[in-house]
Amino acid sequence: MADQSSLLNRRGLLFILSSPSGAGKTTISRKLLAADGQIKLSVSATTRPPREGEVDGLHYQFVSNEDFDRMVEEDDFYEWAHVFDNRYGTPKGAIREALKEGEDFLFDIDWQGTQQLKQKDDQDVVTVFILPPSLAELRSRLEGRATDSGDVIDGRMARARDEISHWAEYDYVVVNDDVEQCFEKVREILHAERMRRTRQTGLIPFVRELME
Ligand code: 5GP
């Protein structure tokens, strides 16, 4: 799709998708990454051991507890949190520089991470919360995953209620009743947010030239 990016410089944005586990956030993230060449995934660091098929540096940066401690101490994280007995964090790394070049980053993080990220860089952050159509549907989606035991599912359901209680802290809320429709809405939000005047850093020189 043609847009203004070839004409005007813009600052990138930090696009956050949050939802309770099982509400479809991962599917929506994957579809967005496949459909849009300007946004890429921010790779989190975690102390959780890799699951089958997960690749270090691609899905997560898998680090030891000691490494994580050091990164916290050196202020290497935009945000970090304890989630299910492990720690997860967003390394600042290349993100700061890439934003200036107009690159966008997608974050699949929970409400705790979202609050911290907004605290550190509110102007670049756009937040979207994805709700399941019902809790019964959420449970059945979690049960459909062969990887998790009953206890784990109960734990995730309890956590889902906690996560959902933070819906009002988000800029946008989308109900994932139909994954295609949900995806389209999320995509429209991203497109509109890119057009925000304050992100279009090339506007002043552009308009100046226009008026000459
Ligand atoms: P999983 O272990 O299933 O990959 O992820 C568990 C939870 O950790 C998910 O709800 C995910 O959103 C959250 N998570 C993953 N990376 C980060 C991160 O960098 N920061 C925070 N705060 N949460 C994260």
Provide structural commentary.
The protein is built from 8 helices and 9 strands. With about 210 residues, it is an alpha/beta fold. It has a domain at about 5-40 and about 105-205: 3-Layer(aba) Sandwich (Rossmann fold), CATH 3.40.50. Strands 2-7-1-8-9 form a 5-stranded parallel β-sheet, sandwiched between helices. Strand 5 (about 75-85) and strand 6 form a beta hairpin. The longest helix is centred in the last third of the chain and has 16 residues, at about 180-195. The protein binds guanosine-5'-monophosphate (5GP).
CATH architecture of the domain at 4-42 and 103-206: 3-Layer(aba) Sandwich
Ions, cofactors and other ligands present here are: guanosine-5'-monophosphate
Q: Give the distance, in angstroms, between the N- and C-terminal Cα atoms.
A: 30 Å
Residue fraction in strands: 15-25%
Q: Report the top-level CATH class of the domain at 4-42 and 103-206.
A: Alpha Beta
**What summary fits the major beta sheet?**
5 strands, parallel
What is the mean predicted local confidence, pLDDT? 91
Shape label: globular
The CATH superfamily of the domain at 4-42 and 103-206 appears as P-loop containing nucleotide triphosphate hydrolases
Tell me the strand order in the biggest sheet: 2-7-1-8-9
Please report the number of helical segments.
8
Classification by helices and strands: alpha/beta
Task: Enter the CATH topology name of the domain at 4-42 and 103-206.
Answer: Rossmann fold
Order of helices and strands: EHEEEHEEHEHEHHEHH
> How much helix, percentage-wise, in residues?
40-55%
Rg, Cα atoms, Å:
18 Å
